[in-house]
Amino acid sequence: MNIPTLTTGRLILRPIHRDDLDASTAIWSDPEFGRYIGIHDRHSMWHNLAANIGAWALEGVGSWSVVERATGALVGRAGLWNEPGWPGIELVWFIGRPWWGRGYAPEAARAAGTWAFANHDVDRLVTIPNRDNLKSIRVAEKLGMTFDHYEVLHDTDSAVYAIIRAEWEARTSS
Predict the structure, then answer these.
(1) What are phi and psi of 92, to 5 degrees?
(2) Using 50, 70 and 90 to split pLDDT, how confident is the model at 174?
(3) How much is the pTM?
């Protein structure tokens, strides 16, 4: 499977690789970062990375490691998620706390969403934050996504936000 590399003004979204393990563990072991999504030690982070790499082979979509162009630092992960029973292809973003407030989440998510619509025959993308995660909900709204419904997924009380292709293209072409 050939996973593309995407570049934005400030970020590189590149395939996940084994060398990301320690930096990813540092991000995902932070209790404030993991407040709504859970925290990972090195062992569970390895499984998390392997699952995200495997998603590309199983579903044709997956996440990228997000690297800050100016420093080369791994700042998080963003991309797409889909699994059986999911409400649609999900746009995901996980930016480490040291980089919060810089606009990296919407920048990375915008690149992933644009790639999804250009490379997959889908008419809608969703994002599924914990219904109490106001920061992720604000990112979804910045991307033009609107509330669709509440749903319990993986034992988490979630809010499903969605955007259709025409709305996405209208927002990203201007």
Answers:
(1) -125, 150
(2) low
(3) 0.96
